[in-house]
Structures are given as C-alpha cells and as structure tokens.
Design goal:
The structure holds two protein chains of two kinds. Chain A contains 20 helices and two strands. By secondary structure, chain A is mainly α. Chain B contains 22 helices and two strands. Chain B has helices spanning 2-11, 17-36, 43-68, 88-111, 118-135, 141-159, 166-197, 202-208, 214-232, 241-247, 250-260, 262-272, 280-303, 308-332, 335-367, 378-381, 383-397, 403-418, 421-447, 452-457, 463-481, 484-500, and strands at residues 71-74, 83-86. In chain B, helix 10 crosses helix 11, helix 10 (241-247) crosses helix 14 (308-332) and helix 14 (308-332) packs parallel to helix 18 (403-418). Classes of the chains: A mainly alpha, B mainly alpha.
C-alpha cells in the first residue's frame, strides 16, 4: 500500500497544478490531502510494526537475468519515525503555505513541485535498495531547488544554485560508492550490504567510509561541508525552510545509519573511527552554536542552529551504539517538530511584520502573545529543557556517546554538554531580542497571524510537549525495530 | 489479387514487415501527394502514419523474435552472400529510430508549413528512416553499407533543404564532405575485411578477422572505427556535427542528432566489438580514452554556446561519449552490461535529444530566434515548450525520474565492473557538470523576466507541435518510472546478440 501512497502523492502533482490555477494559494489544502492520508495509513501500521518489528513491501522494478533492482518499501525502527515526521511536517507546512503565499504568484507550480519534493523524501526513507534510494534522493533535489529559486528571498537564484551545486558534488561520491558496492556484491539490496566487508580489505572500506561520509555530509551540512546551508535555509520561502531544516537534511543522516554503517561498521566502530566521527560532529555542534549567537537575521540564526543540531544527531550515530542511534532517530523527530515550529515563527514575523532583522524587532510578546508563547516552546525545546521532547533525545544521544568505544569519550562528552549551554544561550537571546524588551514604534500594529498559520504551529508545539512528557508514545516503535542496528554493530 | 498478395506475404518472414511497410508507404507517397493537392502539408501525417504502422509492427514482433531467436535470410541474387538478420538488437534500434522519426514527422506538419518542395521533404525523411531501419537488419557489411548510404545521402539533402539560405548549404556541403570521407574510409576498411576473410558475413568476420596478423587487424579495425566514428561524431571527428545539426530544419535536427548518429554506434556494436579478439585490452583502453575525450571536451564546449541548437549539438557529442563508455566496457571485459547499457543510453538519448530539438523547433517556429539570451523567461509564455526543453535536458543529464538516470548509472556501473575506474569517475563528473549547466539554463528559461522577443512573438504552440512534444514526454516518463521493459529488452538483446555470434 505504501507504493500506492507514494504514487498518489506523485499523481497529486499535476492534480494540484490544475486545481491551484483556480483556487490560488488555497491549493495548499488540496496538497496536504494525500500527505494526511499517507500519514494516517502509516499510523495504522503501528500495531503491525509492534508485532513484527517491520513492515515490508516488495515489487520488481527491473528484473532481468543480469541486473535486478527492486522497488521495496521498508518501515522499521529506523525509517518509521523519520517517515512520520516527514509527512507530519510537510502536511502542516502545506497548510501554512496557504496564508504565507497568498500574495505570491505561481501557486500551481509551487504546489506541484511541493508534491514531488515530499514524494522524493518519503521514497528515499522507505527505500530498500541503493538504486531506489538514489533515485528518490535525486528526485527530491530538483523540486527543492526550484522552490528556493522561484519563491525565495534575497539573491535566491544564486543561493539555490549553490545549494544544488554542493548537493550534486556530494552525489558524485555517493553514486560512485553505491555502484562500487553494487559491483562488489552483485546486489543493491540494503540487507546484503553487510556482505561487503568480506569482499574488500580495510583500505577499500576506509575509502568507502570517507566517500560516503563526505557525500552524505554535504546534505547533512557537517562542518566544513555546510557552506550551502545558512544561505539556502535563510533565503528559501519559509514553508520550504521548515522542510529543509526540519526533515530534509536529516535524510543524509538516515542514509548513514541505513547504508554506511552496515558496510563499514568494522571500520567505523573502532577507537579511531568513532573518535574522528564524533569529533566531526562536535565541531558542527560548537561551530553552529557559536555562529548562531552572532546572527542578526532570524532565519540565519535558525539555519546555524540547524547545523548545530545536526551535529547532535551525528554525534549519536557516530558513537555507533544502539542508545546513541535510538537517540539520534528520536532527535530527528523532535528537531523536525521544533525547528519546524521556529521557522514557522520566523515566517510569522516575515508575514505579519515584514522584518527579519532582530535589531529592529523587540517587545512583540505583548502584540502577538500566541506566537510568542509558541516560540518559547520551540526555543526551549532546542535548548534541551526537560519537559519538551528534545531533552530526552539529547540525553539518549549523550548516553550513547558514553557507551561508545572511543577512548576520548569523556572529553568529547564534556564539550557536547557545553554545546547545550550554547544552544540555550542563543535561543534565549533570540527570544529576548524578538519578543521582549522595548517595543519598536514601527511594530505597534503587529498582531497574531490568521488561523492557517497558527494551527500548524500549535499542533507542532503540542506534539513536542506531549512527547516530552510521554516519550514512549514514539519510542516504543523505534526501540524494538532497532534490531537491525544491533545486528550490524555486533556481527 | 489479394490472395496473391497474401501468398507473397506468407513467404516473407514476419520480422521484415516493419521494413516492408515502410517501403510500401514510400511507393504510395506520390499518389497521396496527388490526392492532397493544396493541403500538401498533411503529407507529414502520411509519413507519421507510415512510421506509426511500422513501429506497431516492430513492437508486435518483439515476442516473435524472442521466441524464434535470430533468423537469417539470404538476399536472393546477391553475389557476395548478403544476409539480413532479424534479431532483438536490430529490433531495439528499429523501435528507437521509428519513435523519433514519428515525432519528427508530426512536428514537421507545423514546422515546415511555409516551405516549398514539401513532397520531396517528406519523401527524403521516409527514405532516411527506411535506410536507418534497413541497416538494423544488416548481417553483413555490404548490406550495411548500402543502406547506410541510402540514409546518408537523404540526410545530406535534408540538411541543405532550405537551399536559399547560406547556412544550411554551407553546413550541408561540410557534412557531405566529412561524411563522404567517412564512408570512403569505411569502404576501404570493408575491402580489407573482404580481402582477409573472403566474406562480409558477420559470422565469418568474427571467426576469421582475429586470426589476421595483428598489424593488419589494428589497421582494419581503425579504418572501420574511423568510418563509423565520423558518422557518430567521436573525438576528433566531430567537427561537422555542430554545423550540420543546427543548420537543418529542427525536426531533421531531431532525427539527425537523435538517431542518425546512432547508426554508427550500431555498426560498432555489430561489427567491431565482437571482432576485437586478442586486441580487447588495448582496443578497450583506446576506446576509453576516446570516450573520455569525447564527452569531456564536448561538454566543456557546450558551456560556451550562445546558440541553443549548437548547444544541443555539442550535448549530442557528449552523449555519444557516454555511449562509448559502455562500448569500451564491452570491449574491455563486461560484455553484457557494456552493450546493454550502451544501447539503453542510445534510447534515452534519442528520446531526450529528439524532444530537445523539437522543443527548440517550437521556439524557432514562433520566436524566430536561436539565441539563448532571447528566450529567457519563456516559461511564462510558452510553458509546454519550456518544460519540454528542460525535461529533455535534465533527462539527458541523468536526473530521475527521467530515462537518462536509468541508462547513466548502468553505464557507470558497467565501467566499474570492467575495472575502468578512471572512466567511471570522469563519467560521473561530466554528468554532474551537465546537470549543473543545464540547471543554469533552466533558471534563465523559467525564472528570468521574459525578454522583448518572448513577449512580442510568444504564442501558444500549434496542435501538431503539442502532439509531438507530449508523445516524447509520455514515453520518457513511462521509461523513467517503469524501466523494466526497456531494461529487459536491452539486456536480452545483448545476451542474444552475444549468443548469436
């Protein structure tokens, strides 16, 4: 059925195109319909997932004597949570777009690309083989490029082009790695990837690990491959920033867990391997946090915050422990909720006030109380405050770091915890500068946005709080499904 | 009478029906011309019907050929044992050739409506396609050469069809000289083959040729490769292509770039790849070098073009370089994946380049310009044309869900499998370079403010142009989302071909 869901999302691309010609930006409601249906279907699979630990669909895509590529869809502990957050955030962002884009042009094309973008992300996460994964991985690239280039801000075409360029250069490494792996084991299925280590020596494994981490690292914006992110996320139209930061960059991390870890775990899960990768993650964490502190533009601040948060998630995976990966997956979900929420707050500022520069903002809490309180939830979540879901996931990530085999783990953990302090600093600084302090004269007419913008934000905030109090609501699906990781790490 | 016809047809192998129907339609063309009188532009529909029927017959033949395997038919009365072969490889190319010719014929109805001498235009188009379809059946070099010349001579005239203009005539003469030289070199090579083996039949060539003295073998294979290579526009024999393809009327450019140059590829796969014998190592390496140079240099030159048709012409050369990746992999070691990926990319490129030239045809037809700077912002006025151009270019560059993706990864895979790592890396780099560049073009065509030319002359496409564009887009999307039948055909074709020889 998942194939039908993805096909439906793709087919809605021309349908929404036609409908949006007449109803303009309200096409966002239509665009969200197939996404909601898919989300409901995924939720209904929860019971089966608990029983069998995975839900699997398999079709033949290319079936010849010589080469086989299947079209499979797999939901397990790793992909289920990520697929859920992709659908949840994109459905809400589509509704958010209705008001946000009301004064723009070309809604029909916007929503048509939007559907392809969603289908690409969902397909990549549910894939069961390398070629299929790469197909959807590239499928999400062009629509997202078009969305930034067509409806973004500032020097949007250059920014979108830069985004495309970076990602494509990463794709070179990924494609070569994928095809090398395929030619070694004669299969592209994920479940056969563990076989690679018996075909090649340690040098080839190291080469593969480097190529894949660099290739996927571009999408994940690991420092120093992050050059595209601050600009792209800041200049994209806000609903797209929500998706870029909230769910898209995390797919790179998902690929690391699903593809790279099984291939190279014998190289990765060693003292040197974990130390180097955890250090890389730490650099992203600290660099993103410190840069966020110095930003004046709301969206740039959030973009740098995403680099820092990506560092957290990578830290958990780099530790190569089950707890760490569990925490990372949960954090992907939470980051999707919270960063989505915060970008939507930034979008409210752009839409209602028209100002993104925090030096010109201030005191808005009295004028837009609902937005302000939602922003506080989001900011505290990113800062890792207990009671909001991300506290638990960050805790799990650090616990994973503690369990890792790296000899320097205590030093690394000390810095990682320090970075949480930086997160708290830039987030409180952001809240203070935008919502508190003296009210700027020019802002005295500001008020809360209309409902299509408020409701998605409200839903995201409530979900984050509920998961903060009762995390096993989601974790019960993640933890049993992680057997795959256990097998990979302890062959 | 009908009984006699049926009896006659019964004696002819079913596999030949596509070719025979084309010939019958050619014979009837003057009659139709006489009936149509003033509405002579609808001869395009007639040509399209002939290609469509032939295409349907070819598709119906797939099962027949799969079940009965390759069938050889001796040409009656031939002094040197000419043979036709009906196999899947030929059928695959026939289908490619007919799809692009069909779209080009439909497009011509609108594009050529104001031209004179339309009857000869369509007759030449039909002859060219017949030559192309015919040479897919050739099982010996003589038949191949004769049908090759039928195709080539029609194409010289078609390039220079608008003979009252300077550019087409100049390009046509250049094309004639270069291509004629290529044919001569090929003929010289063929004469050596005959001298060595005493036959031109493919079986005997493959058996006898590798036993020849090594210097002679190198010489003969080089002659054949240069002959095919001039037609297929390898590095450094491509110089005629960027002049000839843009100068022709756009539907003819689509046919030339999409399929005519592929005849050279078919020739190489049929006659050179299996004959390499002991030379496979050195020949594989040298073809790899040619492939690398062809795609890289042409790709870089494409970046400099301001004339959109020249850009597409250079892109054709780049893609020939890509197809050569598969061929060098096939010569070097991994035969099945090399050959099948090469012919798959031939298909992808024929669709993509056909669509691109037809989209440009629509642009030229309404805007009367070929400059890229004049067509900025086209997407706002002629969305279908702009979208076709972009789909075609991104499809060629290898973005999913379009055909280029499916053939390109397979090409790279085959070269990795054969152990040609350098070629694989260069292939991916070139592919990405192409994507990056075409995206920049996309940006100008879609997001820039419309230029004066676009605002002034931009108009909706005519129905014929729309049909031709949508036809190719539809096939590309089917291929993109459901590549199974195409893969299956290509791999079966390669397997059966290797068995056959």
């Amino acid at each position: 059925m998942l194939i039908a869901c993805i096909a439906m999302i793709i087919l809605f691309s021309p349908i929404v195109y036609v409908i949006s010609k007449y109803i303009k930006s309200k096409g966002g409601y239509v665009a969200s319909i197939p996404i909601w249906i898919t989300l409901l279907y995924l939720l209904s699979l929860g019971g089966e997932l608990l029983r069998n630990h995975s839900v699997f669909e398999y079709f033949k895509w290319i079936e010849t004597d010589y080469i086989r590529v299947s079209l499979g869809f797999l939901l397990d502990g790793v992909s289920y949570a990520i697929a859920l957050i992709i659908l949840f955030v994109t459905a809400l962002a589509a509704i958010y777009s209705v008001t946000y884009l009301e004064h723009e042009e070309g809604h029909e094309a916007y929503y048509a690309y939007y559907m392809l973008y969603v289908a690409g992300m969902l397909g990549a996460v549910a894939s069961t083989n390398l070629i299929q994964f790469f197909f959807f991985w590239e499928l999400m690239l062009v629509p997202s490029y078009l969305l930034i280039a067509g409806w973004g801000y500032g020097d949007r075409r250059r920014v979108a082009y830069k985004y495309f360029l970076y990602t494509q250069l990463g794709s070179i490494l990924i494609l070569l790695g994928i095809l090398y792996v395929g030619s070694l084991i004669g299969s592209f299925e994920f479940k056969d990837l563990v076989l690679v280590r018996s075909y090649v020596g340690s040098r080839e494994l190291l080469l593969l690990l480097t190529a894949f981490v660099a290739g996927f690292g571009v999408k994940m914006a690991i420092v120093p491959l992050h050059g595209w992110l601050p600009e792209a996320h800041a200049e994209a139209p806000t609903p797209i920033s929500v998706i870029l930061s909230g769910v898209m960059i995390e797919i790179g991390l998902y690929a690391l867990i699903r593809i790279v870890l099984p291939i190279t775990s014998s190289k990765w899960n060693t003292c040197t391997g974990t130390t180097i990768l955890m250090t890389l993650a730490l650099i992203s964490m600290l660099y993103g946090g410190l840069m966020a502190l110095t930003q004046n533009d709301v969206k740039r601040l959030l973009a740098y915050s995403s680099i820092s948060q990506m560092g957290y998630m990578f830290f958990g995976v780099a530790a190569a422990t089950q707890t760490g990966i569990e925490g990372s997956i949960f954090h992907i979900f939470n980051h999707g909720l919270l960063k989505g929420l915060l970008f939507m707050v930034a979008g409210v500022l752009i839409h209602q006030v028209g100002i993104r520069d925090m030096r010109k903002l201030g005191g808005l809490a009295t004028k837009m109380p609902i937005t302000a309180s939602l922003a506080v939830v989001g900011a505290m979540g990113i800062a890792g405050l207990p009671g909001i879901s991300s506290f638990i996931s960050e805790f799990l990530i650090f616990l994973g770091g503690y369990e890792s085999v790296s000899p320097y783990k205590y030093l690394l953990l000390a810095f990682a915890v320090l970075s949480t302090g930086i997160s708290a600093a830039y987030m409180t600084y952001f809240i203070r500068r935008v919502f508190f302090g003296p009210l700027n004269e020019a802002l005295k007419d500001a008020k809360d946005p209309p409902l299509p913008m408020l409701i998605p934000m409200f839903i995201l905030a409530v979900t984050a709080v509920i998961l903060g109090i009762y995390p096993s609501l989601l974790l019960k699906y993640v933890i049993p499904g992680l057997e795959f990781v256990k097998e990979v790490l302890n062959p | 009478m009908t009984c006699m016809l049926c009896g006659l047809l019964g004696q002819i192998d079913r596999g030949l029906y596509p070719l025979i129907s084309l010939v019958i339609f050619i014979v009837l063309t003057p009659l139709i011309n006489f009936i149509l009188k003033d509405r002579v532009k609808y001869l395009g529909v007639w040509a399209a019907i002939s290609f469509l029927i032939s295409l349907i017959l070819s598709i119906l033949n797939i099962d027949y050929v799969l079940n009965n395997g390759p069938i050889e038919i001796a040409v009656i009365g031939s002094p040197i044992d000419s043979r036709l072969v009906i196999d899947l490889m030929g059928l695959f190319f026939t289908i490619i050739f007919l799809i692009v010719s069909l779209a080009a014929a439909i497009h011509s109805v609108s594009y050529m409506e104001h031209d004179k001498h339309l009857p000869s235009y369509y007759l030449l188009l039909q002859l060219m396609t017949t030559g192309l379809v015919g040479l897919t059946y050739a099982a010996d070099l003589f038949t191949f050469f004769v049908l090759w010349e039928l195709m080539a001579i029609s194409s010289y005239v078609l390039v220079a069809f608008r003979y009252h203009l300077d550019e087409p005539v100049e390009a046509g003469v250049k094309y004639l000289l270069m291509s004629g030289l290529g044919s001569l070199i090929m003929l010289y090579g063929i004469s050596f083959v005959y001298g060595i083996t005493g036959s031109l039949n493919i079986h005997l060539i493959i058996k006898m040729l590798p036993t020849a003295p090594i210097t002679l073998l190198v010489f003969v294979l080089s002659l054949l490769l240069i002959g095919f290579g001039i037609k297929a526009a390898f590095f450094p024999f491509w110089t005629w292509l960027p002049d000839a393809h843009p100068a022709a009327p756009s539907p003819i450019s689509a046919v030339l770039s999409g399929i005519v140059i592929k005849a050279g590829i078919l020739g190489i796969i049929r006659f050179v790849v299996p004959a390499a014998g002991n030379l496979s190592y050195s020949l594989g390496i040298s073809m790899a070098v040619v492939a690398a140079l062809t795609m890289t240099v042409a790709n870089l030159l494409a970046l400099l073009q301001e004339d959109i048709k020249r850009l597409l012409a250079y892109s054709s050369i780049t893609n020939i370089g890509f197809i050569l990746i598969g061929i060098s992999a096939a010569i070097y070691g991994s035969q099945i994946s090399g050959i099948s990926s090469a012919i798959l990319h031939t298909f992808s490129h024929a669709l993509g380049k056909g669509l691109a030239f037809l989209a440009v045809g629509a642009i030229i037809h309404t805007l009367k310009t070929r400059r890229i700077s004049d067509i900025e912002g086209l997407g706002k006025v002629m969305p279908l044309t702009a979208a076709s151009l972009i789909i075609a270019l991104l499809g060629l560059a290898g973005m999913p869900p379009l055909p280029g993706f499916w053939s390109k990864w397979f090409l790279i895979y085959s070269s990795i499998e054969a152990g040609l790592w350098g070629l694989a890396v260069l292939g991916v780099l070139n592919s990405v370079l192409a994507v990056i560049f075409y995206l920049w073009l996309l940006q100008r065509v879609f997001f820039a403010e419309p230029t004066e030319v676009v605002l002034e002359k931009g108009a909706k496409e005519s129905i014929w142009i729309k049909i031709s564009l949508i036809l190719l887009i539809a096939i590309m999307l089917i291929y993109g989302f459901y590549p199974q039948p195409f893969y299956n055909l290509a791999i079966k074709a390669a397997e059966l071909f290797l068995q056959f020889i």
